[in-house]
Specification:
By secondary structure, the protein is of the alpha+beta class. It has three domains: 2-95, 3-Layer(aba) Sandwich (Rossmann fold), CATH 3.40.50.20; 123-186, Dna Ligase, domain 1; 189-331, D-amino Acid Aminotransferase, Chain A, domain 1, CATH 3.30.470.20. It is 34% helix and 20% strand. It contains ten helices and 13 strands. It has helices at residues 27-39, 51-60, 81-88, 98-105, 107-116, 164-178, 226-230, 251-268, 303-310, 315-331; strands at 2-7, 43-48, 65-68, 124-127, 142-146, 160-161, 182-186, 190-199, 203-205, 209-212, 242-244, 273-281, 286-292. Strands 8, 9, 10, 11, 12 and 13 form a six-stranded antiparallel β-sheet that branches. Strands 4-7-5-6 form a four-stranded antiparallel β-sheet, with helices on both faces. A hairpin with a 3-residue loop joins strand 8 and strand 9 (203-205). The longest helix has 18 residues, at 251-268.
Amino acid sequence: MKVALTYNLKKKDDTKPPDYFSEFDSEETIKAIISALESKGHTVEALDVEYPRLFSYFRNNRVDIVFNIAEGKCGRFRESEVPAVLDYLDIPYTGSNTFSLALALNKALTKKILKAEGIPTPEFQLFTTGKETLNPALKFPLIVKPNREGSAKGINKNNVVCREEDLYKKVQEIISFYKQEALVEEFIDGKELTVGVLEDGKTTILPILEIDFSTCKKSGEYFYSWRIKEYQGNSDLGTTPTFYCPARLTSEEEARVKEAALKTHRAVGCFDISRTDIRLDKKGIPYVLEINPLPGLNPKESNFPLMAYAAGMQYEELIEAILMSASERNRV
Protein backbone atom coordinates (compact mmCIF):
# COMPACT_ATOMS: atom_id res chain seq x y z
CA MET A 1 0.00 0.00 0.00
CA LYS A 2 0.98 3.60 -0.47
CA VAL A 3 0.87 5.17 2.98
CA ALA A 4 1.15 8.81 4.02
CA LEU A 5 2.40 9.38 7.58
CA THR A 6 1.03 12.61 9.07
CA TYR A 7 2.79 13.98 12.14
CA ASN A 8 3.91 17.03 14.13
CA LEU A 9 7.68 17.16 14.59
CA LYS A 10 8.92 18.05 18.05
CA LYS A 11 11.13 21.14 17.83
CA LYS A 12 13.51 23.02 20.08
CA ASP A 13 12.53 26.66 20.54
CA ASP A 14 13.79 28.61 23.55
CA THR A 15 11.13 31.29 22.94
CA LYS A 16 8.38 28.78 23.78
CA PRO A 17 7.43 27.32 27.19
CA PRO A 18 9.35 24.12 28.05
CA ASP A 19 6.30 21.90 27.56
CA TYR A 20 5.07 23.60 24.37
CA PHE A 21 6.05 20.78 21.98
CA SER A 22 5.58 17.90 24.42
CA GLU A 23 2.75 16.26 22.51
CA PHE A 24 4.66 16.30 19.22
CA ASP A 25 6.75 13.38 17.97
CA SER A 26 10.51 13.02 17.81
CA GLU A 27 12.48 12.20 14.66
CA GLU A 28 13.22 8.84 16.27
CA THR A 29 9.51 7.99 16.41
CA ILE A 30 8.82 9.14 12.86
CA LYS A 31 11.78 7.19 11.46
CA ALA A 32 10.77 4.08 13.42
CA ILE A 33 7.22 4.12 12.03
CA ILE A 34 8.47 4.68 8.49
CA SER A 35 10.95 1.80 8.87
CA ALA A 36 8.27 -0.49 10.31
CA LEU A 37 5.86 0.26 7.46
CA GLU A 38 8.53 -0.17 4.80
CA SER A 39 9.61 -3.48 6.34
CA LYS A 40 6.09 -4.74 5.63
CA GLY A 41 6.34 -3.74 1.98
CA HIS A 42 4.52 -0.39 2.09
CA THR A 43 5.60 2.79 0.33
CA VAL A 44 5.67 5.70 2.76
CA GLU A 45 5.56 9.48 2.36
CA ALA A 46 6.03 11.45 5.60
CA LEU A 47 4.17 14.76 5.94
CA ASP A 48 4.69 17.29 8.71
CA VAL A 49 1.43 19.08 9.44
CA GLU A 50 1.62 22.27 7.39
CA TYR A 51 -1.88 22.85 6.17
CA PRO A 52 -1.39 24.41 2.71
CA ARG A 53 1.02 21.61 1.88
CA LEU A 54 -1.32 19.04 3.41
CA PHE A 55 -4.24 20.02 1.20
CA SER A 56 -2.15 20.32 -1.95
CA TYR A 57 -0.39 17.01 -1.31
CA PHE A 58 -3.59 15.02 -0.95
CA ARG A 59 -5.24 16.79 -3.87
CA ASN A 60 -2.32 15.91 -6.14
CA ASN A 61 -1.19 12.53 -4.80
CA ARG A 62 -3.12 9.32 -4.44
CA VAL A 63 -2.53 7.31 -1.27
CA ASP A 64 -4.26 4.17 -0.09
CA ILE A 65 -4.38 5.21 3.55
CA VAL A 66 -2.92 7.69 6.04
CA PHE A 67 -1.10 6.58 9.19
CA ASN A 68 -2.00 9.50 11.42
CA ILE A 69 -0.06 10.46 14.54
CA ALA A 70 -0.54 14.23 14.15
CA GLU A 71 -1.62 16.21 17.19
CA GLY A 72 -2.90 19.07 15.04
CA LYS A 73 -1.97 22.70 15.13
CA CYS A 74 -3.95 24.60 17.75
CA GLY A 75 -7.38 25.16 19.22
CA ARG A 76 -10.00 23.26 21.18
CA PHE A 77 -10.19 20.34 18.76
CA ARG A 78 -6.65 20.25 17.39
CA GLU A 79 -6.25 16.45 17.45
CA SER A 80 -9.25 16.14 15.12
CA GLU A 81 -7.95 18.67 12.56
CA VAL A 82 -6.05 16.26 10.31
CA PRO A 83 -8.81 13.60 10.39
CA ALA A 84 -11.31 16.34 9.49
CA VAL A 85 -9.24 17.20 6.40
CA LEU A 86 -9.00 13.52 5.47
CA ASP A 87 -12.74 12.99 5.98
CA TYR A 88 -13.45 15.96 3.72
CA LEU A 89 -11.19 14.48 1.02
CA ASP A 90 -12.58 10.96 1.60
CA ILE A 91 -9.18 9.48 2.46
CA PRO A 92 -9.05 6.60 4.99
CA TYR A 93 -6.77 6.92 8.02
CA THR A 94 -5.69 5.03 11.11
CA GLY A 95 -7.07 5.69 14.56
CA SER A 96 -10.13 7.40 15.91
CA ASN A 97 -12.37 9.81 14.04
CA THR A 98 -12.83 13.54 14.50
CA PHE A 99 -15.55 13.16 17.12
CA SER A 100 -13.63 10.80 19.41
CA LEU A 101 -10.39 12.78 19.17
CA ALA A 102 -12.13 16.08 19.94
CA LEU A 103 -14.04 14.49 22.81
CA ALA A 104 -11.07 12.78 24.44
CA LEU A 105 -9.03 16.00 24.37
CA ASN A 106 -11.68 17.60 26.59
CA LYS A 107 -11.10 15.88 29.93
CA ALA A 108 -14.18 17.26 31.69
CA LEU A 109 -16.56 16.31 28.89
CA THR A 110 -15.04 12.83 28.71
CA LYS A 111 -15.51 12.43 32.47
CA LYS A 112 -19.20 13.32 32.13
CA ILE A 113 -19.60 10.47 29.65
CA LEU A 114 -17.68 8.10 31.91
CA LYS A 115 -19.97 8.94 34.82
CA ALA A 116 -23.03 8.44 32.61
CA GLU A 117 -21.69 5.02 31.62
CA GLY A 118 -21.03 4.02 35.22
CA ILE A 119 -17.25 4.01 34.78
CA PRO A 120 -15.42 5.18 37.93
CA THR A 121 -13.63 8.51 37.52
CA PRO A 122 -12.50 10.98 40.20
CA GLU A 123 -15.06 13.59 41.25
CA PHE A 124 -14.30 16.90 39.59
CA GLN A 125 -15.19 20.51 38.91
CA LEU A 126 -14.40 22.68 35.90
CA PHE A 127 -13.18 26.25 36.49
CA THR A 128 -13.56 28.62 33.54
CA THR A 129 -12.86 31.97 35.24
CA GLY A 130 -11.07 30.91 38.41
CA LYS A 131 -13.68 32.73 40.50
CA GLU A 132 -16.12 29.84 40.86
CA THR A 133 -16.97 28.60 44.36
CA LEU A 134 -15.33 25.29 45.09
CA ASN A 135 -17.84 22.46 45.36
CA PRO A 136 -17.76 21.57 49.09
CA ALA A 137 -18.34 17.91 48.23
CA LEU A 138 -14.87 17.66 46.71
CA LYS A 139 -12.32 16.19 49.09
CA PHE A 140 -8.72 17.34 49.40
CA PRO A 141 -6.10 16.62 48.19
CA LEU A 142 -7.14 17.89 44.77
CA ILE A 143 -5.16 18.02 41.54
CA VAL A 144 -5.42 20.87 39.05
CA LYS A 145 -4.90 20.27 35.32
CA PRO A 146 -5.35 22.10 32.03
CA ASN A 147 -8.61 20.72 30.65
CA ARG A 148 -7.49 20.31 27.04
CA GLU A 149 -3.87 19.17 27.01
CA GLY A 150 -2.04 15.87 26.79
CA SER A 151 1.41 14.53 27.73
CA ALA A 152 0.87 15.87 31.28
CA LYS A 153 1.40 19.44 30.05
CA GLY A 154 1.03 21.91 32.89
CA ILE A 155 1.17 19.21 35.56
CA ASN A 156 3.82 18.78 38.26
CA LYS A 157 3.96 17.89 41.93
CA ASN A 158 2.75 21.37 42.88
CA ASN A 159 -0.54 20.78 41.08
CA VAL A 160 -1.65 18.58 43.97
CA VAL A 161 -3.05 20.95 46.59
CA CYS A 162 -4.46 20.57 50.09
CA ARG A 163 -5.76 24.10 50.74
CA GLU A 164 -8.25 26.34 48.96
CA GLU A 165 -5.72 29.15 48.82
CA ASP A 166 -3.25 26.99 46.89
CA LEU A 167 -6.05 25.60 44.73
CA TYR A 168 -7.21 28.99 43.48
CA LYS A 169 -3.64 30.11 42.86
CA LYS A 170 -2.97 27.07 40.67
CA VAL A 171 -6.34 27.39 38.90
CA GLN A 172 -5.63 31.01 37.99
CA GLU A 173 -2.15 30.08 36.84
CA ILE A 174 -3.42 27.41 34.45
CA ILE A 175 -6.27 29.54 33.06
CA SER A 176 -3.87 32.41 32.44
CA PHE A 177 -0.95 30.45 31.04
CA TYR A 178 -2.75 27.82 28.95
CA LYS A 179 -5.70 30.02 27.92
CA GLN A 180 -8.26 27.35 28.79
CA GLU A 181 -10.34 25.94 31.62
CA ALA A 182 -8.77 24.31 34.66
CA LEU A 183 -9.96 20.86 35.66
CA VAL A 184 -9.96 20.21 39.41
CA GLU A 185 -10.41 16.62 40.51
CA GLU A 186 -9.88 14.52 43.59
CA PHE A 187 -6.38 13.08 43.71
CA ILE A 188 -6.57 9.31 43.95
CA ASP A 189 -3.86 7.75 46.08
CA GLY A 190 -2.98 4.39 44.60
CA LYS A 191 -1.24 2.52 41.79
CA GLU A 192 -0.65 4.35 38.52
CA LEU A 193 -1.68 2.13 35.62
CA THR A 194 -2.15 2.49 31.89
CA VAL A 195 -3.99 0.09 29.62
CA GLY A 196 -3.71 -0.29 25.85
CA VAL A 197 -6.53 -1.48 23.63
CA LEU A 198 -5.62 -2.66 20.13
CA GLU A 199 -8.06 -3.55 17.37
CA ASP A 200 -6.29 -6.09 15.17
CA GLY A 201 -9.13 -8.16 13.74
CA LYS A 202 -10.35 -8.61 17.28
CA THR A 203 -10.29 -6.40 20.34
CA THR A 204 -7.11 -7.04 22.32
CA ILE A 205 -6.49 -5.59 25.77
CA LEU A 206 -2.73 -5.50 26.15
CA PRO A 207 -0.95 -6.39 29.41
CA ILE A 208 -1.47 -3.63 31.98
CA LEU A 209 1.51 -1.36 32.59
CA GLU A 210 2.22 -0.21 36.16
CA ILE A 211 4.36 2.87 36.74
CA ASP A 212 6.09 2.84 40.14
CA PHE A 213 7.41 6.22 41.32
CA SER A 214 9.18 5.02 44.46
CA THR A 215 12.47 5.30 42.51
CA CYS A 216 11.78 8.99 41.70
CA LYS A 217 12.27 10.41 45.19
CA LYS A 218 15.20 12.55 44.05
CA SER A 219 12.88 14.41 41.68
CA GLY A 220 10.14 14.89 44.29
CA GLU A 221 7.58 13.71 41.74
CA TYR A 222 5.23 10.91 42.74
CA PHE A 223 2.86 10.59 39.80
CA TYR A 224 3.07 10.83 36.00
CA SER A 225 3.88 14.53 35.77
CA TRP A 226 5.28 16.39 32.78
CA ARG A 227 8.86 16.23 34.12
CA ILE A 228 8.63 12.47 34.61
CA LYS A 229 7.40 12.00 31.04
CA GLU A 230 9.70 14.51 29.39
CA TYR A 231 12.90 13.46 31.19
CA GLN A 232 12.09 9.81 31.74
CA GLY A 233 15.18 7.79 32.60
CA ASN A 234 17.31 10.77 33.67
CA SER A 235 19.07 9.59 36.82
CA ASP A 236 20.54 13.04 37.53
CA LEU A 237 17.02 14.48 37.79
CA GLY A 238 15.63 11.42 39.52
CA THR A 239 12.99 10.94 36.82
CA THR A 240 13.46 7.19 36.78
CA PRO A 241 10.16 5.38 37.34
CA THR A 242 10.10 1.61 37.40
CA PHE A 243 7.79 -0.15 34.95
CA TYR A 244 6.04 -3.44 35.59
CA CYS A 245 4.28 -5.09 32.68
CA PRO A 246 2.20 -7.03 33.46
CA ALA A 247 1.31 -4.90 36.47
CA ARG A 248 1.50 -6.30 39.98
CA LEU A 249 -2.22 -6.93 40.43
CA THR A 250 -4.45 -9.71 41.65
CA SER A 251 -6.53 -11.48 39.01
CA GLU A 252 -9.62 -9.66 40.30
CA GLU A 253 -7.92 -6.27 40.12
CA GLU A 254 -6.63 -7.00 36.64
CA ALA A 255 -10.11 -7.92 35.44
CA ARG A 256 -11.64 -4.72 36.86
CA VAL A 257 -8.92 -2.51 35.37
CA LYS A 258 -9.20 -4.10 31.93
CA GLU A 259 -12.99 -3.85 32.01
CA ALA A 260 -12.77 -0.13 32.86
CA ALA A 261 -10.32 0.49 30.00
CA LEU A 262 -12.41 -1.39 27.45
CA LYS A 263 -15.62 0.32 28.51
CA THR A 264 -13.85 3.68 28.23
CA HIS A 265 -12.51 2.81 24.76
CA ARG A 266 -16.02 2.00 23.60
CA ALA A 267 -17.78 4.86 25.39
CA VAL A 268 -15.55 7.41 23.67
CA GLY A 269 -15.92 5.59 20.33
CA CYS A 270 -12.25 4.88 19.68
CA PHE A 271 -10.96 2.98 16.65
CA ASP A 272 -7.85 0.83 16.20
CA ILE A 273 -5.92 1.97 19.28
CA SER A 274 -6.27 3.75 22.61
CA ARG A 275 -4.48 4.04 25.95
CA THR A 276 -6.43 4.64 29.15
CA ASP A 277 -4.75 6.04 32.28
CA ILE A 278 -6.12 4.63 35.53
CA ARG A 279 -5.46 4.99 39.24
CA LEU A 280 -6.27 1.92 41.32
CA ASP A 281 -7.18 3.07 44.83
CA LYS A 282 -6.57 1.29 48.11
CA LYS A 283 -9.98 -0.41 47.87
CA GLY A 284 -9.22 -1.84 44.44
CA ILE A 285 -11.46 0.58 42.51
CA PRO A 286 -10.03 1.56 39.09
CA TYR A 287 -10.58 5.28 38.55
CA VAL A 288 -10.22 6.34 34.92
CA LEU A 289 -8.26 9.59 34.68
CA GLU A 290 -8.38 10.03 30.91
CA ILE A 291 -8.16 8.21 27.59
CA ASN A 292 -5.70 8.93 24.79
CA PRO A 293 -6.90 7.77 21.34
CA LEU A 294 -3.60 8.99 19.88
CA PRO A 295 -0.99 7.45 22.19
CA GLY A 296 2.74 7.87 21.67
CA LEU A 297 4.47 5.25 19.54
CA ASN A 298 8.14 5.83 20.31
CA PRO A 299 9.62 2.31 20.15
CA LYS A 300 11.82 2.78 23.22
CA GLU A 301 9.96 5.11 25.59
CA SER A 302 6.24 5.17 24.84
CA ASN A 303 3.92 3.15 27.02
CA PHE A 304 1.86 1.60 24.25
CA PRO A 305 4.76 -0.21 22.54
CA LEU A 306 5.99 -1.40 25.95
CA MET A 307 2.62 -3.07 26.51
CA ALA A 308 2.68 -4.55 23.00
CA TYR A 309 6.14 -6.02 23.65
CA ALA A 310 4.84 -7.63 26.83
CA ALA A 311 2.13 -9.23 24.69
CA GLY A 312 4.82 -10.78 22.50
CA MET A 313 4.59 -8.34 19.59
CA GLN A 314 7.46 -6.79 17.71
CA TYR A 315 7.35 -3.06 16.93
CA GLU A 316 6.84 -3.75 13.21
CA GLU A 317 3.93 -6.05 14.03
CA LEU A 318 2.28 -3.37 16.18
CA ILE A 319 2.49 -0.71 13.48
CA GLU A 320 1.21 -3.16 10.86
CA ALA A 321 -1.67 -4.21 13.14
CA ILE A 322 -2.81 -0.59 13.50
CA LEU A 323 -2.60 -0.07 9.73
CA MET A 324 -4.43 -3.30 8.88
CA SER A 325 -7.17 -2.61 11.43
CA ALA A 326 -7.87 0.74 9.80
CA SER A 327 -7.63 -0.73 6.30
CA GLU A 328 -10.14 -3.48 7.05
CA ARG A 329 -12.47 -1.07 8.85
CA ASN A 330 -12.53 1.26 5.88
CA ARG A 331 -13.41 -1.56 3.51
CA VAL A 332 -16.70 -2.19 5.34
